[in-house]
Each structure stands twice: as C-alpha cells, then as structure tokens.
Amino acid sequence: MPHQFDFGMVEHLFPEYLTKLEKGRLLKALAQFKDETEKKKWSSKIYTNFYGKSRYGYFLQGDMVREIRYPDYVPQNKSFDRTFTDALILSNTCDLEKSNLRKMRKQVVMAPLLEMGQFVEEASNYKGAKEIILGIKAQTVSNIFYLPPSPNNGKEYVCHFDKAFWFPTAELNSYLPDIKQTRIHSLDYFGYYLFLVKLSYHFCRLPEEKQR
C-alpha cells in the first residue's frame, strides 16, 4: 500500500460502537504501515490482536474458511481445473445470513488463501523476491493481503484479491453445522479493518489516473 495513503481517513470508517480505547488501538496499529522506517524493520509486533475468537455460529466477512471448491486456471491448457482451496470471505456479513431473505439471492465472493511457505517457494524465481516478500508482510503490495502466523497452527497466509471468485451462498451455509472445524479464523478489529482498508484500496482507489 503506497505511503501516500492517508491512514487518518480510516478513523471515519469506524462504527460508533467501538470504544475510544479500541479506536485508539486501531489507529496506532494502522499508523505503523505508513512509516517507511517502520515498514523496513517489520516485525510480528505490528500484528498483535490480528485474530479473534468468533462467538457466532455463522460466517463473517473476513473469515478464513477451509476447503472451498475453486476453479484453478491452468495457463498451459487455457482451462480451469476443479480443485479445493482455503479462502477468505470478501462479501459483507449480512449478505451471507440465511435469515436475510431476498427476492434475488446474493452469492458469496471469496479469494483464495495460499500458505506463505508455498508462496515463498513459488516466488523464489522472481527478480527481487526478498523485497517482494518483505513488501507483502508490510502490506505494501496492493493486490495481496498478508495474514500473520495463526495461533492455531503457526501458519502464515497470503490472500490474492485479484484471484477472487464467487461461491454459492447455499453451499457455504451447508457448512454451518461444522463451522468450528470449517472456519480457520475470524479477524479481530485490527485484522478486520486492515483487511477492509486493503480490500477497498485494491478495488476502489481514486484517482485512477486515467482520463475517460
């Protein structure tokens, strides 16, 4: 995420139900990403309180979900393979709820998750691979959201916003009886708002710098 982004704007996105202490903690945490010196000496301390323990029996925006059917593009064949991937929910929470009846049902938009170790292996042939990985961990790469080590399994993940796909809401809701096993993690306030900032910046940044 470029350093020109004004993190002061983020405060206006916070809902009223957040306490002053929670807002202050969020702003302090997010502010670390706009300081070039801090980004260069990145450490896991930035990501304290990234994950939370979900007390809900339904899926939330930003949830990490196991084993979702995924169309994986194979460039050699110019076709898609049917496979499974862990994924991050991009859709708004209210669009997922079974109780939210609509004349036209909304489907879920998700983005695939890749374990950081696998990404590092695949990126090893890239020019400047080390700098790319540091940039991802500092959240400066706009199309990739970095998720720090999981307290459950110690794994780091990357989420590719530019590989987003849709998934049937009805099928996702069929996972609800086993949600404790299906959901890898929910995001705490810090992780969630960092996710929203990056998601919004990737898809909606202005100006586009193109004359129309």
Polypeptide structure, described:
Residues 1-7 have low confidence and may be disordered. The chain is built from seven helices and eight strands; from the N terminus they run ααββββααβββααβα. The protein has helices at 20-31, 36-40, 116-123, 129-137, 169-173, 179-182, 189-204, and strands spanning 51-52, 64-74, 79-89, 108-115, 144-147, 157-160, 165-167, 183-187. Helices cover 28% and strands 23% of the residues. It has one domain (7-204). With 212 residues, it is α+β, with helices and mostly antiparallel strands. The chain starts with 19 loop residues before the first helix and ends in an 8-residue tail after the last helix.
Q: Low-confidence parts, pLDDT < 50 over ≥5 residues? A: 1-7
As for the number of domains, it is: 1
Number of strands: 8
Strand content: 15-25%
Q: What is the average per-residue confidence, as pLDDT, rounded to a whole number?
A: 79
Distance between the termini: 25 Å
Based on CA inertia axes, which overall geometry fits? globular
Task: Tell me the number of helical segments per DSSP (H or I, 4 or more residues long).
Answer: 7
SSE string, helix = H, strand = E?
Answer: HHEEEEHHEEEHHEH
